[in-house]
Structures are given as C-alpha cells and as structure tokens.
Please model this.
Amino acid sequence: MSEIDEIFEREPIPAHILERMEQCRKRRMLVPDERLIKRPSHIEGIRASSRINTGVLDEVAKHIKAGMTTLEIDDIVREYTNSHGAICAPYHFEGYPKSVCTSINDEVCHGIPSRLRKLHDGDIVNVDVSTIYNGYYSDASRMFMIGEVSAQRRRLVEETKKCLEIGIEAAQPWATVGDIGYAISKYARSRGYSVVRELGGHGVGLEFHEDPFVAHIGRKHTGMVLVPGMIITIEPMINAGRAGVVLDPYNDWTVSTADGSDSAQWEHSILITETGNEILTY
Ligand code: MF3
Ligand code: CO
Model:
C-alpha cells in the first residue's frame, strides 16, 4: 500500500465530522467522498509542497521585468523547484510542454512560455505555479504588473485579487462550493467585470486536479459541502470585457478572451478547517 493510502487507514476522519457529513447527506446535500478529506499527515505533506510553491513565486517576483522572455520565467521556476527537491506539476501534464503557465494581458490562462514572447512595459502577466513534493501537490498564481501599467489594468489586477479574497472568505466549513462562486461573481459584476465560466478551481493535494470543480459563479447553498480537511484551489479568472473565451487552435492550450479584453487571475490553495480556512500557499 502507498504511504498516502496508509495514512487514510491510520488516521481516520474524526467521528464528529463523520456525523455532521451524515446529517448533510440526509438533507440531500452533495457530500464529498472520504478520500477528499485530507488527514493530518497528508496536510503536512501538502503544506511542505506549498511552502516550496510560494518560494517559487517569490523567486519569480524578484526577477520578473520588462524585456525578459516568458521562457526565462520557465527557467527560474524549474531551477528553483528542482533545487528544492521538487518537480513542476505542469511539465508533461496531459502533454503540456513547459513547467509553468505565463498568461499575458488578454490571455486568460495556460499561456505557454516561449523564447519568442517578451514582457513589455505596461503588460499584466499571470504566473501560475504548481509543485509536486514528495508526491504532494500545491497550486497558486499571482499577477505581476510590468513597469508602468495603465490605471484600467491596475484596477483589474487589484479587483481580481479582491475576488480571490472574497471567495476565500466564503469558503467556510459546512458552506458549499456554490457559496464561493456566488460571492465572487456578485462582487466581480458589481465592479463591471465578467467571470470566466469554462475553467475553475479544484480539489488539490494528492493529485493535481481532484473533485470538486470550484466554479467562480454559482448559487448559494448549492454544490458540494465544504468539509474540514478538504483542500481546494480558488482561482478566479476575471475579464474586463465579456466572459467568453477562445482556445488557441495552434497550441490547443492557451485560453484568451474572445473579445480581446484584458483578463486577470489570482490563485491560492486553501485548507478547510473546523473554524474557517487556512491559506497554504501564502
Ligand atoms: N495550474 C493550473 C491550475 O490552476 C493548471 C495548469 S494545467 C497545465 O489548475 F497543464 F497547464 F499545467
Ligand atoms: Co489550479
């Protein structure tokens, strides 16, 4: 049996949590499979992975600047990750060719680093880093503003960060995934922005992408209940214009806004606790 499976046997879900899950089931709520409830030793492993993931983003923050190519960001990410005994989760994930995603301006996500793509003064870029350490996954992304950025772009970046914070605030124990999407989309729309619907957050930790899918739109009290021990990402993609997106037909990865408007994204991996939640990727 794998170490991860042994932990599931050795560290059972506490009885009072199992009881509360049963009550939710009786009220016809969608209750997570027991394997989505991480145990203390899993959480320690995912915490260690998250610490490296945060270190990667801090390293990118130190070096990112106008004139740099996105391939140089890929090099920084891979070298820092590998020198800390970890692996870049995106590399060869479902055929993805690079170690990190770098999405500029109207690119929504999954921008592929390239020696041909330079960062220019005034660009906004999302750097999305995912790490595997000792078999445990972590996932977070930040926006970087390159040089002098327009007021509109700055506002989009800052309000998208606020969307992430509002989503995290909504991710309380025994709330639902729909509560997260409801809170984010309500705020984004109030600021005149739209929310990308096709992509979302996800469970994370023992695999790269686990259940549940965390939509950034939603209705209160719908979707899977958030049980202490779950670890999910929240990663709103917010567009300055309309919500529609298109997939790059040449590389089959990069998602951009359909109307060419700017898009921003921030992401954290969070642990649902009995009293609230904890951001693992700070
Ligand atoms: N890091 C992205 C996420 O937040 C996933 C990237 S998939 C990849 O889920 F293959 F592009 F790496
Ligand atoms: Co993610």
